[in-house]
Amino acid sequence: MNAPMNAQAVAAYLQEHPDFFETNAELLAHLEVPHPDTGEAISLTERQLMALREKLRLLQDKMAELVRFGEENDAISEKVHRMTLSLLEANSFESIQAVLDSHLVDDFEVPHIALRVWNSIISRESPEFSRVSEETRFFAADLRHPYCGPATQPEVVSWFGEAGAHVRSVALLPLKRDGQVFGLLALGSEDLERFYPEMGTLYVARIADLVSASLLNYLG
User: What's the pLDDT at 95?
Assistant: First the structure.
């Protein structure tokens, strides 16, 4: 007497005979499986349709997400382009500052920005040329990429003035000349999640390069 087939044996048989339901199509109309939500019996065909609809929904959600990311990147790219054109037209240190205020604050909606430069041939009686501690200069020199995360650098936070007490996250952009850091552009926000460690820094790094190149024309 043959032993009854277990589930593994049935599955193995169907894998070995993929045309089984083609030659026994009438079985599909009678096979029933539990509904994934209600537990009620439904036909195998209906269950397969539900699975296909779920896969389609997931694909549509993924496609919508990719489209959204693409649109966001296009918008950021356009803002960087506008800022680039404005920096090309800037003809003084003061006009560069005005570009930063206009584009970073108004276009990128960064509520607080601060700039510090050091080792410059020129100097002015303005906060941008205020003394920066050796500790902060070493910190900036060690940055290989812009820092994005919690506002944990007291000196940098103080650059935002009275608003610094409310700044929770920052993006710190090292400004470089021939690979050497000569300044720091700080972006601050009261939102702890505005700048976070896992965020992409491609566009932030490009902004740092643009600002560095523009400043070097006037700082020497």
Answer: 93
The pTM score is 0.71
Q: Is 188 helix (H, G, I), strand (E, B) or coil?
A: strand
Q: What is the dihedral of CA 108, 109, 111, 113, to 10 degrees?
A: 10
What is the residue type of 38?
T
What the block records as the tokens of 189 is 């926000």
CA dist., res. 209 & res. 176, Å (int): 8
Mean pLDDT of the chain: 86
Say which residue the tokens 């970073």 belong to.
104
97 close to 128: Cβ distance less than 8 angstroms? yes
Phi and psi torsions of 41, nearest 5°: -70, 130
At the second CATH level, the architecture of 90-219 is 2-Layer Sandwich (3.30)
How is the chain split into domains, by residue range? 28-82, 90-219
- C-alpha distances out from residue 164 to 49, 112, 157, 184, 204, Å: 57, 9, 5, 16, 21
Per-residue HEC secondary structure of 159-177 comes to CCHHHHHHCCEEEEEEEEE
Question: Which of 1-5, 124-128, 183-187 reaches the highest mean pLDDT?
Answer: 183-187
CB-based contact 118:134 (threshold 8 Å): no
The two tokens of residue 53 are 């609809």
Task: Note the pLDDT of residue 30.
Answer: 65
Give the C-alpha distances (Å, rounded to integers) separating 49 from 22, 42, 53, 149. 18, 11, 6, 46
pLDDT in tens, 137-174: 999 999 999 999 999 999 999 999 999 999 999 999 99
